[in-house]
Specification:
The protein has 83 residues and is mainly α. The chain has two helices and two strands; from the N terminus they run H-E-E-H. Strands 1-2 form a two-stranded antiparallel ribbon. Strand 1 and strand 2 form a beta hairpin. The protein starts with a helix and ends in a 10-residue tail after the last helix. The mean pLDDT is 76.
Length: 83
């Protein structure tokens, strides 16, 4: 549905905001990639790249949360070697 919306827009035009679950989405067709067959206008072709970016962001957020939990429970004690 988003691909159809995007292809129906004139280059540089924006769609109306639409709800996608908890997110509002506004689609804009980029003037420079609006040519027929442009990779960036093909949602099927862009999907793997976007999914990889989202997975990377989620992994990073999960790692940051884990490190915060570990820091909050850590005890630091001086040892003889540290003096």
């Amino acid at each position: 549905a988003w691909g159809e919306t995007l292809r129906a827009l004139a280059p540089g035009a924006r769609s109306a905001a639409r709800r996608n679950g908890e997110t509002l989405v506004l689609v804009q067709r980029d003037v420079e990639t609006a040519g027929a067959g442009a990779h960036e206008t093909d949602f099927a072709g862009a999907r793997p790249r976007l999914e990889a970016q989202i997975r990377g962001a989620r992994r990073s957020a999960a790692l940051q949360a884990l490190l915060a939990r570990l820091r909050s429970t850590a005890r630091i004690e001086r040892t003889e070697a540290a003096r």
